[in-house]
What does this fold into?
Amino acid sequence: MSPYGGPEEKLFSMRPLVGTAVRLRRVEDASEQMTQVEHDGNFTFENLASGKYQLSVDLPPLMKPWESRELTIPAKGCSEVSVRTAFNGRLTGKVTDKTGAGIPYIDVEVVRASEAENAERAFRWINANKDGTFEIGTLPPDEYVVGVNIVKYGGAREKPKTFYPGVADVREAKRIRVREGQLIEGLNFRLDPKMPVHPGS
It folds into this structure.
């Protein structure tokens, strides 16, 4: 299932991961039970002793990892846990200035390629690390454009755009197709020399 809003939910949201293994380990004695997700997305453990348990899910590598969770089952009671994940598509790279040095904490934006010319909001965005490197996810399967200042702003906020692989014209921007859970590396690009650098703005 996808935890994000937006058009992709029409296809991916609330899709049960049928057959996925769900594990429940009792903290007191480390005994473990396993069940599988049913066709409607539900899973159930019954006749449990009261106490603390650790719940984990065996998600496939193409899905965003889900950290195990501790829960307490009261005497003659129950506990309900919802597990959400998403395709773990990711884009990684580095933004540099005209000298080739990484630009710290600059905002890197990703938009759908189909909306790149008039995007008014980023589909995903992130502050680059101190050395200018970035990793953006989670992305469902689609075609994307990545860059700096590529979202359309009005008035004084309008700034020069730079699209990967280092171009100012959206028509020259590289379209990046992300498959289910795919990691795409090496999206390194240099800002337009005419662009003022305002990290994290």
Summary: The chain has one helix and twelve strands. The mean pLDDT is 86.
